[in-house]
Specification:
heterodimer; A: alpha/beta; nine-stranded parallel sheet; two-stranded antiparallel sheet; 21 helices; B: alpha/beta; Defensin A-like; Rossmann fold; 2 domains; five-stranded parallel sheet; three-stranded antiparallel sheet; elongated
């Protein structure tokens, strides 16, 4: 299936996205955040919590004045490593316990501080690279079923229950398991520690929970002869830290959007822009596929009206991702099946939007989200709408397919709901596997005209944003009818300017790796 | 006079129902029989296990058709509803001008950690829901949508500081009773601050019923499919009723 689309219009949109992102990237290069610095500490090997359950990376940062942050916490930490001779983990604990202060080490010259960090930086990068190789080897030995990859969510609040549900879902055909986070975790300015058994609407993302789920999925993957992917959320206030933990524990995908937190969680835009950049640098190195959150434009407003905003956001997300070193095959741009099912030809409009994204971003593993807004307690109708969504996905060659649940509007999925959902998807996708290859949209027909109009409106929208500047455009409620100010929202106090000698050893190393490859 | 009803399959009083459920057992003929016996223990007769199959190792799924001997007397049933004052936006605005004489101030939020604003947005935002405009569009309402993840404390503070006439609290996530906890906390805080009687207190969400709302001490509860005009009408009428004695004085 192929639409005739205005290729020069696509090029103009890409150029506009570059123009929009460039000044934001300049801002990013001059700033860092507390979460970026905590991610650096975590990668160096600092972990654990204090007696008051404060994560040690937070405790370390909170114990020093912001003036220390400006140089990059790594520099102070490197001096402490050099002068105490301790390893990062015990050093972190000692500082958190008040036995040392990060400020007391001032003897060591910067070059020696960097030298003291080097083995730990190399070890972290080696572990991340090693996890990437393990994934590649496993994928070769345990090949996945053809896309769309069936993706389901587990969300019990208890990691051990989640594990049971995830294994059952994998055995029922799921190829990607996402552990949805406890509602509200995106607003925590720290990452909880250890295995967790209580959460609301989801389970806390912790490094130990990542490990538990990774081990379970590796085991079931071996048994099934196909690799089962693990997903979590690098969104909210701790994007870089989650990306670091995910890299260390071999997650395969992360929800990671350049604007989602700003618009839908009222997280400060400067914080988000800086955080998404470093988290994406890490994702690029760890081989993690990001999933962007364009579905949110559709769940909060009319899906027909918001189609150009979805496309514009895809262009902007792509540009930000490229700037952080992510290649196309790690950029899972998002979309969702959210047009009102009562609308005549709603299916045609869905196909138009999905196919438009497919052709504009040919190398991207597109992420397709299921109907949620128009799902009701009528599970029978819901199952039918999900079937239409499944058909659209397979015919437009979407890559990552979040399976819709017939009980979407009722409860977090039961084990049986997930099994029915997977059966639905498997049936439709098998029955219509090559349907898309067999049909040609009528030239000048409804699908083609709709796609053309969305692309055109997207260009107009991007022109408007480029003229205003992205931060001001967000302030003017250009996206999702939500207005956010550059210095408003959560987490702004954690954004700071870099001093001329600012040092982030991982950023430096990752830039070097990116340049070499 | 009593009027008993039973579920209807294809004959009056045949009592037919469909059930589906999962059992944490490996599928086998014995699992089918277990499903059948379970339905019998539930009180059903003519139990037919229409489908039984493995959905995961250690789990089986069943579709069961059966008859229930139970019936209910419609005469003995009353379900309260807050959707009683059918008026259009224009009629509501006119009603407010005539009976209240000033704009009604309404604040709404998704309280607690809940981030699902689809319900509160449908009621408050200009655009509304199903072609029924949201409260922001009304001339005689001043609507303040505080968005998601607003703590009950913050909502109460806002209500006090900005002199709200009505508060709308929305909850979509219901896992482990988090919705009830948040609704309860909001009600108790308003009482503690001594302003419970000053506001029309409304809860909403896909699992909310008006019965639940009255149990929680709210003035009304609105569930799935609620239109903004239904909420607006309830607020206007309730507020007008409360203000009446003052007018007489």
């Amino acid at each position: 299936m192929e639409l005739r689309i205005d290729r020069s219009g696509v090029e103009r949109c890409r150029a506009l996205a570059a123009k929009i992102v460039a000044p934001v990237e300049a801002f990013i290069a001059r700033h860092s955040t507390v979460s970026v610095e905590r991610a650096v500490l975590r990668l160096l090997g600092v972990d654990g919590v204090t007696g008051d359950q404060v994560p040690i990376p937070n405790a370390l940062l909170d114990a020093v004045p912001a003036a220390v942050w400006n140089h990059g916490v790594a520099l102070a930490f490197g001096r402490a490593l050099a002068e105490t001779g301790l390893d990062p983990a015990p050093l972190g604990e000692a500082i958190a316990a008040g036995r040392f202060s990060l400020e007391q080490f001032s003897e060591t010259p910067p070059a020696a501080a960097r030298g003291a960090l080097r083995p730990y930086v190399e070890a972290a990068l080696k572990r991340i690279g090693g996890q990437r190789e393990v994934r590649e080897r496993k994928l070769a030995e345990l090949p996945q079923l053809p896309p769309p990859l069936l993706y389901v969510i587990v969300a019990s609040g208890n990691i051990y229950e989640d594990r049971t549900a995830a294994v059952a879902a994998a055995q029922a055909g799921a190829q990607v398991i996402a552990v949805i986070r406890s509602t509200g975790q995106s607003l925590l300015d720290f990452v909880p520690f250890g295995p967790t058994t209580e959460g609301f609407g989801g389970t806390y993302a912790t490094q130990e929970n990542f490990r538990i789920m990774r081990a379970a999925l590796d085991e079931v993957g071996e048994r099934l002869g196909r690799y089962v992917m693990l997903t979590n959320y690098a969104s909210g206030l701790c994007m870089p830290e989650i990306a670091a933990m995910a890299a260390l524990e071999r997650l395969d995908m992360l929800l990671n959007d350049s604007m989602y937190g700003i618009l839908f969680r009222d997280i400060n835009m400067k914080r988000t822009f800086v955080d998404q950049h470093f988290s994406r640098m890490l994702n690029a190195r760890s081989g993690i596929v990001i999933n962007t959150g364009e579905d949110n434009y559709l769940t909060t407003a009319d899906a027909i009206e918001q189609a150009p905003a979805v496309l514009a956001s895809q262009f902007i997300n792509e540009e930000f991702a490229h700037r952080a070193g992510l290649p196309d095959d790690q950029i899972g741009l998002g979309d969702a099946y959210e047009i009102n099912p009562d609308l005549e030809d709603s299916f045609l409009y869905q196909v138009a939007q999905a196919q438009l994204a497919r052709e504009i971003f040919p190398g991207a593993p597109l992420k397709y989200m299921p109907p949620t807004k128009h799902m009701t307690g009528d599970v029978f109708k819901g199952h039918l709408i999900d079937a239409m969504f499944n058909l659209t996905s397979v015919m437009t060659r979407q890559q990552i397919h979040l399976c819709g649940m017939l009980t979407e509007a009722i409860h977090t999925p039961f084990l049986g709901d997930r099994a029915l959902s997977l059966e639905n998807a498997r049936y439709i996708m098998n029955a219509a596997r090559h349907f898309g290859d067999e049909i040609v949209p009528r030239p000048g027909g409804i699908i083609e005209r709709r796609a053309a109009s969305v692309l055109q409106s997207c260009e107009t929208l991007l022109e408007h944003v480029a003229a205003m500047g992205l931060m001001h455009a967000i302030e003017a409620a250009t996206f999702a009818d939500v207005s956010r100010t550059p210095d408003g929202g959560r987490g702004f106090e954690g954004v700071f300017e870099r001093a001329p000698d600012y040092f982030n050893p991982f950023e430096e190393a990752l830039c070097l790796i990116a340049t070499v490859s | 006079m009593s009027r008993f009803v039973k579920p209807y399959g294809d004959t009056l009083d045949d009592g037919k129902v469909q059930l589906s459920f999962t059992l944490p057992v490996e599928w086998s003929e014995a699992a089918d029989e277990a499903a059948r016996q379970l339905a019998v223990r539930m009180g059903f007769t003519d139990v037919q296990v229409a489908d039984g199959r493995a959905i995961a190792p250690g789990f089986s799924f069943f579709v069961v058709y059966a008859s229930t001997p139970q019936a209910v007397d419609l005469e003995g049933i009353s379900a309260s509803s807050a959707r009683t004052h059918a008026m259009t936006m224009e009629e509501i605005d006119d009603f407010v001008i005539e009976r209240i004489g000033r704009k009604i101030r309404v604040a709404g939020a998704c309280i607690g950690t809940d981030a699902h604003t689809v319900g509160i947005d449908a009621i408050l935002n200009m655009k509304g829901y199903k072609g029924d405009y949201g409260l922001e569009r009304y001339h005689m309402f001043e609507a303040f949508n505080l968005g998601s993840q607003v703590s009950p404390e913050a909502l109460v503070r806002y209500a006090k500081e900005h002199h709200m006439d009505a508060l709308l609290a929305s909850q979509v996530v219901t896992q482990k009773g988090s919705d009830i906890k948040n609704f309860t906390a909001l009600g108790e805080l308003l009482e503690a601050e001594g302003i419970r009687d000053r506001v029309v207190l409304i809860c909403g969400g896909p699992r909310v019923t008006n019965r639940l709302a009255s149990e929680l001490g709210y003035d009304a509860g609105f569930g799935r499919g609620t239109l903004p005009s239904e909420v607006a009408a309830f607020v206007a009428v309730t507020l007008a009723d409360r203000l009446r004695p003052a007018v007489l004085r």
